[in-house]
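Dig into this one:

. . .
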Amino acid sequence: MEFFGDIERYASDLYPYRWPISIGLAVAAAAIVAFAVRRGWHRVIVRNPRRSAAIALPLTAILVVAGWYTLSPLWERTFLDEPSPLEATTMPPATSEGAPAPEGTRSASPAPPAALAPTAETEPALPRQTHAGTFMGADDFHFGRGTAQLIETAPGAYTLRFEDFSVRNGPDLFVYLTPDPTGESIDGGINLGELKATDGAFNYELPPGTDVSQFSSAIVWCKQFAVLFAVAELAEV
C-alpha cells in the first residue's frame, strides 16, 4: 500500500496549487469530451451498450468504493474530551489543630520541637508533566495543531495526552511514539492505538516499563498507506 501513500504524498505537494490545477483539469476534460464527440466515439458506446456496460459498471464500482474509503474521512469530524491526569489532586489529611479538647480532659503540653535532622531529597509530586511538544501538520494538506504531553502518573508509568488537538482526518489513523524527531519513520516506535478523535483532548496509556527517554516525537500516522499526518517533537520540561 506504500504505492498509494506515495501518490497521496505527491498529491499533497500539489495541494497549495489546487485551484489552478482544478480549473486546468476541468478545461482539459471539456476539451477531451468535445474531441470525442467530434470524432464520433460516442457512437461506439451507443452501438455496443452491453459491452460498454460490462466495462463501465465494474470500473465505476471500484472507483466509488476506493473514493469513499480514501476521501470520505476528509469530511468527517469527531470530538472527544477526556480529563487530564494532571487534574488528579490529593486532599491533605484533616488535622485536629484548633479543635476543642473533649470535655473533662486536659490538653497535653506541646512537646518540644525535635532537633531538625537532614532529610533525603523528596521525590517530585505526581502526576507531573515531563515532556511536551506542539503539533505540526506534515504538509499544507495534512494539517495538525495542539500540544502533546507526556505525563508521569506514577513512578515509571506514563500517559501521552493530546490537548487542544485537531488534525486532518483520514483512513486508518494511529498514534505512535517514535525515536525519529521528524516523525517520518515509525521504526522502533510504539503503536498506542487508533486515533480516538480528530478534535479535542484525550489520553493514551504507555505500556508498563516504557523508557520515555528513547522517544523523540508523538505522531499521527496513516498505517494503511504509511503517510505522516501530524507530528509533535517532544522536549523535556
